[in-house]
Write a structure and sequence with these properties.
Blueprint lengths: L9 H12 L5 E10 L6 E9 L4 E8 L12 H11 L10 E5 L9 E5 L18 H19 L16 H13 L9 H10 L8 E3 L8 E4 L2 E5 L6 E3 L2 H9 L19 H12 L6 H24 L10 H16 L10
Antiparallel strand pairs: 1-2, 2-3, 3-5, 4-5, 6-9, 7-8
Helix pairs in contact: 3-7, 4-5, 4-8, 5-8, 5-9, 6-8, 8-9
Length: 347
Amino acid sequence: MTAQVPVIDRDELARRVLSASTASADAVSVDDLTELTGGHSGHTFAASLAYRDGVLRQVVLKVATPGVPPVRNRDVLRQARLLRALAPVPDVRVPRVLFDDQGVPPAVPPLFAMDFVAGDSYEPTTDPPRDLPATAVAGRFTAAARMLAAMQAVPPAALGLDDEPPGSLQAEVDRWERALDTVEEALRPRHSECAAVLRARQPEELPPVVVHGDWRLGNMLAVDGDIAAVIDWEIWSVGDPRLDLAWFLSMSRVKGNALAFYDPPGLPSTETVLAAYEQARGGNVPDLVWFDALVLFKSAATLSLIVKHNRRRSSPDPSRERYAAQIPGLIESALALLGAGHTGCEP
């Protein structure tokens, strides 16, 4: 039986938004409340706030899922906290948080409102082609690389986030190994060996920074060749800066990227994107090959979960079954990068 998706009472939501907004501004109505699709860890709404002086402000609302504790990726107030912390950082663009309401969870879910930012989200190697100039595609990649370096230049303590415990690289490997442990053996040959080699050859960790967790163009709003805002901060953490960098670099590849379906005009080389990041960072990045292997291992785990959940559906999507054949190759590629390919060498 399919679990029932919790429903949010829109009239009650509008009343809560109006009450929260009037604490800092003279709003008189909440109009055009529309739920947006695509979220997986809460609810996202678009709305218009009307003010007494006739100003109409477009906003986006993030609302936790009612009926369940707002923790981890469902903790919308934690997302709002980060957005507020990043707002004053030079050369980093995020939506401005306007107000929040803590609710009475889990029955009355927390929420926050942020400014609507114009722009489009487009992952060039994954999404169907768009009528976008090649210069804009290249510009978005390099702009996002520079913005990542700018964000990582500010230590978490300087952002008021010194109470956030940093995650370790070993914990990252453990996480994806556990995910692979849950799928059938045919999908994950040599996955335990790969995890062991990753642990044995783990490089020295760099000072922790804010980690988005899924830094890619699909989680950004862009206009022409520039980034207007980075969005979707549900899984942010504090950790090694190369976690975001290596994942982002993988999205500029077609070969070896299991999620890539297109090779659009203007797609820059990985070397070009890395050069933009390193120039903004002010130095070279060490030990990226290990992180490239981790990305492959993470991709294998992510695709294995997609296949597992798809096979459990009453009507599986045949198109998702194609991932099953790719997963063993991803693990083998990770082992090859680590110098432990088909020879099965010990870590």
